[in-house]
Amino acid sequence: MHSEFTAFPRGVEGRGASRRLRRSGRAPGVVYGGTAQPQPIELDHNALMHALKNEAFHSSILTMKLGSESQQVLLRDVQMHPFRKQVLHVDFQRVDANRKIHMKVPLHFINGENSPAVKLSGAIISHVITELDVSCLPKDLPGFIEIDLSELALNQSIHLTDLKLPAGVTAVSRGGMNPVVATAIIPKIIAEVEEVAPEAELEPGTPEAEAAAAGAEKADEKGAEKGAEKGAERGAERGGDKGAGKGAEKGGDKGAAKGSEKATGRKDEKK
Q1: In what order do the strands lie in the sheet with 124-127?
Q2: Is residue 191 one of the residues assigned to a domain?
Q3: Are 60 and 3 contacting, i.e. CB atoms less than 8 angstroms apart?
Q4: Which residues, listed in sequence order, are joined to residue 134 by a DSSP beta bridge?
Q5: 132 burial class (0-12, 13-18, 19+ CB within 10 angstroms)?
Q6: Does 26 share its domain with 51?
Q7: CA distance 80 to 155
Q8: What is the domain extent for residue 159?
Q9: Cα–Cα distance measured from residue 192 to residue 59, given in angstroms and rounded to the nearest whole number
Q10: pLDDT tens per residue across span 142-181
Q11: Nearby residues of 25 by Cβ (< 8 Å), 6 or more positions away
Q12: The domain that contains 138 carries what CATH number?
């Protein structure tokens, strides 16, 4: 898959010139490699941002129109602003049609929902690797590599050596390792819940069922007795409090009445 974009020669370099370029809506960059010298370039920022959203722009041979010439290049690096949606710098590498290139190619996983691991066991498929480092001639570079998961069973894994790569493409593994690409597992929490067996239902009329029923009745009786005792204690406490309050009120009223009568009698005697 080939994509085209337009670049323009950049006459000035340096931090100040790059800042002015960004403020004018352009993105600074460079193209290097091959037999030619590295050349500073500039690109329309909005067009570049739109192209970067396309996966193929990152992993395919690109045709760069620079002036009156067209060159085959690869996107090698993009420097983004820490928090703005702004490209600070972009690097492209010229491609020699007769020399192999190393490139990271995205992996596309298909038919995972139809695999025995998902349909029969309720497993979750983990994509351990999402892009693969490959070596090939520019004409053989794929835009992506498709991985079929339809035969994946529970607790099985797909390794690097299990992949069916396009003709002329070889995977680059470091140290001769055979890493896992995808695996089907059941998360530990879900597995523990499934391992807890539910209580077996007892058939009515059997000794076990009668014993269980008797135990349940005793538990209910004990619960009722405890509830009645607690209710009686609470009622007694509330009744005692109310009785004491009423007695205190009546005693206070009688004492006050007698005291007032005595005081009135004394006043009459003095007169």
Answers
A1: 124-127, 180-185, 157-159
A2: yes
A3: yes
A4: 103, 171
A5: buried
A6: yes
A7: 40
A8: 101-195
A9: 42
A10: 999 999 999 999 999 999 999 999 999 999 988 778 999 9
A11: 44, 45, 46
A12: 2.170.120.20
In a domain, 259, yes or no: no
Same domain, 178 and 231: no
Q: Where are the alpha helices (DSSP H) in 72-206?
A: 116-119, 188-195
Q: Which of 2-6, 100-104, 154-158, 245-249 has the lowest mean pLDDT?
A: 245-249
3-state secondary structure of 5: strand
* Whole-number pLDDT of residue 190: 60
The token duo for 244 is 């004491």
Let me know if residue 258 belongs to a domain: no
Q: Are residues 134 and 182 in the same domain?
A: yes
Among residues 63, 70, 68, 76, which one has the least CA distance to residue 29?
76
CA 45 – CA 21 distance, rounded (Å): 10
In the chain, the DSSP E strands lie at 3-9, 26-32, 39-44, 62-66, 69-80, 87-94, 101-110, 124-127, 131-136, 145-148, 157-159, 170-171, 180-185
CA–CA dist 109, 122 (Å, integer): 18
Domain boundary residue, one of 94, 123, 141:
94
Q: Report if pTM > 0.85.
A: no
Distance in angstroms (rounded) separating the CA atoms of residues 92 and 10: 14
Q: What is the pLDDT of residues 27-65, one digit of tens each?
A: 999 999 988 899 999 999 999 999 999 999 998 999 999
257 found inside a domain: no
- Total domain count, the chain: 3
